[in-house]
Amino acid sequence: MVIEKLLKALYAKNNKEAPHAPKTHDLLYLAEKLNLELTEEQEVTLNKITTFNLSTRYNDYKRTFYNRCTDEYTEEQINKIKEVKLWLEKMLEKKEE
């Protein structure tokens, strides 16, 4: 959820005339609306994080998601999320040119 909020904050920062970000949980869609240049790995990560959000919101997906979340898998995903978080925070901190 933190990645979604950071993307929406970046959207508001970059769109002062119309700061309301699209009402979506699709992180890749938000990144595309921001015209962010993403690596293939970043695209995969944003799609995966979006899937995590959906998996925890809807009961049908919870059990399948829970079974996939081994300690190793969870640690790997948390580290990727932290990387994306830092990247977005750096963009938010940049002064406008």
Please render the helix and strand layout as text.
Elements: H1 2-14, H2 27-33, H3 40-57, H4 59-68, H5 71-93
Features:
97 residues; globular
Question: What does this molecule look like?
Answer:
The chain is an all-alpha fold. Helices cover 73% and strands 0% of the residues. It contains five helices and no strands. It has helices spanning 2-14, 27-33, 40-57, 59-68, 71-93. The protein is globular. The mean pLDDT is 86.
Report the portion of residues in β strands.
Answer: under 5%
* SS field, number of helical segments: 5
| Shape annotation | globular
Kindly name the structural category. mainly alpha
- Topology, number of strands: 0
Helix content: over 70%
Element-by-element helix/strand order: HHHHH
Uncertain runs are: none
| Oligomer class | single chain
Distance between the termini: 29 Å
Q: Radius of gyration in whole Å, from Cα?
A: 14 Å
Count of spatially separate domains: 1
Largest sheet: none
Mean pLDDT: 86
